[in-house]
Amino acid sequence: MRLPVACLLCLCHTAAASESMPALDRWSFAAGTFDNTFHIKGRVDGALDHDGSLIDFGERFGFDRKRVTQLYEFQYLFADRHQVELRHYSDQRTRTANIDETIEFEGQRFPSQVNLRGNAGFSVSEVSYAYWWGVETRTPWAAQAGVIRLRGSLGLRGRIEVDDVGEAEGSASANDHVDAPVVGVAVRHAFNEHWRWFATGRLIYLELGRLSGYAYTARFGLEWLPTRHVGVTLQYGESAWNAERRGSGFNGELEVGFRGPQLLLRLRG
User: Fold this and answer.
1) What does the pLDDT read at residue 129?
2) What confidence tens digit (pLDDT) does each residue in 211-233 have?
3) Do 72 and 88 form a contact (C-beta atoms < 8 A)?
4) 31: phi then psi, degrees, rounded to nearest 5
5) Which range has the top average pLDDT, 4-8, 110-114, 253-257?
6) 3-state secondary structure of 2
7) What is the rounded radius of gyration, in angstroms, for the C-alpha atoms of the chain?
8) What is the DSSP letter of 50?
9) Residue 250, beta-bridge partner list
10) Is 187 within 8 Å of 198 (Cβ atoms)?
11) What is the CB-side half-sphere exposure of residue 247 using CA atoms within 13 A?
């Protein structure tokens, strides 16, 4: 009689374990590449009553072309349902454009050549906390809160040559950062011990002194876990920022968007 009971208990334990396949790691560190498509527009103003031109750096200089950049993530789960996450990635582009145009002034036409050199970059750092519900199931979900920092830089240097008139040079640049609170939600699902999927979305609204704007970030992906301590993550991420600042030092607007697939090697425990 003892043997059938023991077998029944063993089967019940196996079934329960299969139903509660863990979708969360105790800790993980991931590093990989971000096949980033970069979109950026910027405006640097002069006096407060004079707005500069909004320049599409992607269209003018080709900054919207894809480029592989680095991405890092760290996650730590404590007390079963509390999680801290750190993420960082950055990108920097420099391009030169030569434009031939004709300027018309007082009925006369002047052929001109314009040489523009633009640089644009960003870095994103995130620190967030998540509280998970349903950690004993295959599909836990969480509410998130944290702080995100976007640092953006724009630079523009140009030279114009007008036939039979002469040439002139000019430049403008800006380098600023945004720190903002962020809230979001996340969900994960474990198909089995080797495959999991996840999705997360976050919203940011900026209203900090002279700075105002909005942003969102989102990503979803698939994890393959061939061993207990090593995994591979394939995910797609997208973010969009729009911030405007008025005040001493720098006045202007910055629109940044980046998106693309991300591949990471993950160490886990």
Assistant:
1) 97
2) 667 788 899 999 999 999 999 99
3) yes
4) -140, 140
5) 253-257
6) helix
7) 25
8) -
9) none
10) yes
11) 8
Return the closest-CA partner of residue 40 out of 264, 247, 255. Answer: 255
Is residue 57 within 8 Å of 38, Cβ to Cβ?
A: no
Asked if 119 and 155 touch (Cβ cutoff 8 Å), the reply is: yes
Say if CB 67 and CB 102 are below 8 A apart.
no
- Beta-carbon contacts of 158 under 8 Å, excluding residues fewer than 6 positions away, are 114, 115, 116, 117, 169, 170, 171
pTM of this prediction?
0.71
* Three-state DSSP state, 7: helix
Which is nearest to 72 in space by CA: 28, 112, 36?
Answer: 28
DSSP 3-state helix, strand, coil percentages of the chain (rounded to 5)? 10, 70, 20
Task: Count Cα atoms within 13 angstroms, Cβ side, for 223.
Answer: 27
48: which 2 tokens? Answer: 């407060």
- For the chain, list the domains and their CATH numbers: 23-94+125-145+177-268 (2.40.160.60)
Q: How far apart are CA 158 and CA 136, in angstroms?
A: 60
What is the DSSP annotation of 179-231? EEEEEEEEEEEESSSSEEEEEEEEEEEEEETTEEEEEEEEEEEEEE-SSSSEE
- The kind and range of the H/E element at 39 are strand 27-44
Taking the C-alpha atoms of residue 180 and residue 59, their distance in angstroms, rounded to an integer, is: 28
